[in-house]
Amino acid sequence: MNFVINGINYHVDIRGNGFPLILLHGFTGSSATWAAFENKWSMHSQMISLDIIGHGESDSPEEISCYEIEHQAEVIYSLMKKMNIGKADILGYSMGGRLAITFAVKYPHMVRSLILESTSPGLKTALERNERQARDFRLCELISEKGLEFFVDYWEDIPLFSSQKRLSEQKWLAIRNQRLRNNPLGLINSLKGMGTGAQPSWWDELIKIEFPVLLITGSLDQKFCQLANEMESDFRYAKWKVVEACGHAIHVENPEIFATFVSDFLAEIAFSKENGEK
Ligand SMILES: C=C(O[C@H]1C=C[C@H](C(=O)CCC(=O)O)[C@@H](C(=O)O)[C@@H]1O)C(=O)O
Questions:
Q1: Hey, whose CA ends up nearest to atom 14 of ligand 1?
Q2: Structural domain boundaries enclosing 25
Q3: What's residue 243's pLDDT?
């Protein structure tokens, strides 16, 4: 299904019945990330998987401001309004997790729960943000000068994804081919507009979140385990789950455990809502 919001076309994959679950993929990903979970989640959730701007079948506009993370949170707001959805569970992986946190901070009344896989609320200081933007700008130059295939070769080889080298060739190729289906301009503008250094820090906003949060990281992903540990202390109602022997993309490396953690968390939320708990 396609939605036009502010003149930009967004592709949205919608499967299943039940309470709305908005699914937000990572950088170089797409809504296809979540298809594998249809059997597990579509019984209890209406899975609404967005191709985030510059990714998948959504547009890759030239204007960088379209990609700003607060603007993209507003897009999710508009999408929910167009679908007559008042409140949803929001699940985000990595870049999608940063967008999920942004949406939760801007539109808390529209969130029932938040599920965050390997992500962060941004960088705390302007110095960190500037340094990260410079790093991400060099990635943009790599994409524009060397092309998408060269960039994907580089990207899949960064230390953060080293544990993915253990994946079956079929799984590894599926991720690679899905990265290669993206638009180079979309990835460049995504880094410039909504990269980790481009967004505001939401660290001081986490304490204001009043709905349940599930944090999921892989034990091999030390950086994002540290971030999850800190976020667990800052959120009022957060649970942190660590999946052993997994890296950054738990949904790829151990989809069974990931799917079960999400389903169990959502079942708990639904039960507590049905029994009138806040
Ligand atoms: C390399 C770092 O940050 C990048 C890594 C993960 C994020 C992501 O969405 C990757 C998804 C994937 O390729 O599976 C990405 C983001 O949040 O935009 C970060 O740029 C790092 O060390 O922080």
A1: 26
A2: 2-274
A3: 98
Rg of the chain over all Cα atoms, to the nearest angstrom = 17
Tell which one of 55, 196, 252 to mutate to probe ligand 1, the residue whose CB is within 8 A of the most ligand atoms: 196
Which atom of ligand 1 lies at the shortest distance from residue 97's CA? Answer: 17
Instruction: Look at residue 278 and tell me whether its pLDDT is greater than 60.
Output: no
Q: Where are the beta strands (DSSP E) in 6-85?
A: 8-15, 19-24, 45-50
Mutate to test the pocket of ligand 1, among 142, 160, 225, 253 (most ligand atoms within 8 A of CB): 160
DSSP one-letter string for 9-21: EEEEEEE--SEEE
- Tell me what percent of the residues of the chain surpass a pLDDT of 90: 96
CATH number, domain at 57? 3.40.50.1820
Domains of the chain: total: 1
Q: Name every protein residue with a CB atom under 6 angstroms from any ligand 1 atom.
A: 26-29, 94-95, 98, 158, 160, 195-196, 249
pLDDT in tens, 77-107: 999 999 999 999 999 999 999 999 999 999 9
Beta-sheet strand order (sheet of 45-50):
2-5, 8-15, 45-50, 19-24, 88-93, 111-117, 213-218, 238-243
* Nearest atom of ligand 1 to the alpha carbon of 98: 17
Protein residue with least CA distance to atom 17, ligand 1? 95
| Structural tokens at position 60 | 């890759």
Ligand 1, atom 23, lies closest to the CA of 196
pLDDT in tens, 99-110: 999 999 999 999
Q: State the pLDDT confidence band at 277, using cuts at 50, 70 and 90.
A: low
Tokens 């990260």 correspond to 132
Q: Whose CA is nearest to atom 21 of ligand 1?
A: 160
